[in-house]
Specification:
Elements lengths: L6 E4 L5 H12 L3 E6 L2 H10 L3 E5 L5 H15 L4 E4 L14 H26 L5 E6 L12 H20 L4 E8 L5 H6 L9 H8 L8 H12 L10 E4 L7
Parallel strand pairs: 1-2, 1-4, 2-3, 4-5, 5-6, 6-7
Helix pairs in contact: 1-8, 3-4, 4-5
The protein binds NADP nicotinamide-adenine-dinucleotide phosphate (NAP).
């Protein structure tokens, strides 16, 4: 029970990695505020996990982030941990990317982190053992075609993580995980950005040193480690979890 009675907000909990994080945090005794847009998937997950509530909304809205924190305090009386997983691709090269899509991608992948942290940090600081884990991407360090908004937002999210880790130490440990290709709907959507969309996912798999895609559970294990006291001397780190693809 690595997170017994810890109260956690998990964004992107309706699918892929965020859902796996929610399931693993729950097994470890956490109480959860689950965030996402899809009402059916969100309510179904909350029904499966004890001590959890689902809040539907768009993370790019500041007031929704305020409400996530209120839900944690009203339902569970405290807040200890944030796990950021909501994300979007916003595909298109700089010349053809509509300004609205640029801004939306930056809002969902970057500003949403600012909005939730702004509201959550004063509550997390009230107790020892606070932790924030931000799911970014290897796209913070490596460029991909038609991903300018995505790469820029993920690199900025790593920079924001490092700044906050300095600002809020030693009260709160703040780290980023940087996944490579993980088998979720998001990865299959990203295939259309590449020259050979039909083989893009297989190509990514073959480009890893470990010769497989990541699973949401691989990511949940690292998120749990960083959120728990097992990582009590780790803050300000951006950890790649990518089957070795960045080093290939
Ligand atoms: N899959 C990969 O290969 C990969 C690699 C590196 C990094 N990542 C990052 O990993 C994170 C999780 O992605 P995933 O692969 O697990 O994708 P996924 O299965 O498509 O899940 C994405 C999640 O983000 C939520 N979301 C998206 N836009 C939102 C918004 N405006 N407001 C609220 N929630 C929103 C979705 O909610 P609804 O479904 O309810 O709309 C969903 O829960 C993302 O930040 C992504 O950038 C993915």
């Amino acid at each position: 029970m690595k997170l017994k009675n810890k109260v956690c907000i998990i964004t992107g909990a309706t699918s892929g990695m965020g859902k796996a994080v929610a399931q693993s945090f729950s097994k470890e005794g956490a109480k959860l505020v689950l965030s996402g847009r899809n009402l059916d998937r969100g309510n179904a997950l909350a029904a499966q996990l004890p001590h959890s509530v689902f809040m539907e909304g768009d993370v790019s809205e500041p007031s929704y982030n305020e409400n996530l924190v209120k839900a944690a305090i009203e339902n569970f009386g405290q807040l200890n941990i944030l796990s950021f997983n909501a994300g979007m691709l916003g595909l298109g090269d700089v010349v053809n990317l509509p300004e609205t899509l640029w801004h939306k991608t930056l809002n969902v992948n970057l500003s949403a982190i600012f909005y939730l942290c702004k509201n959550a940090i004063p509550h997390i600081q009230k107790r020892p053992g606070g932790a924030i884990v931000i799911n970014t991407s290897i796209a913070a360090f490596k460029s991909f075609p038609n991903h300018p908004a995505y790469c820029a937002s993920k690199a900025a999210a790593v920079a924001l993580m490092k700044q906050m880790a300095v600002e809020y130490a030693p009260d709160i440990r703040i780290n980023a995980i940087c996944p490579g290709p993980v088998d979720t709907p998001f990865l299959w959507d990203s295939a259309k950005a590449f020259k050979n969309p039909d083989s893009a996912v297989e190509d990514a798999k073959n480009a890893t040193l470990l010769n497989r895609l990541g699973t949401p559970e691989d990511i949940a294990k690292l998120t749990l480690f960083l959120a728990s006291e097992d990582a009590s001397w780790i803050t300000g780190s951006s950890m790649t979890i990518d089957g070795g693809i960045l080093n290939a």
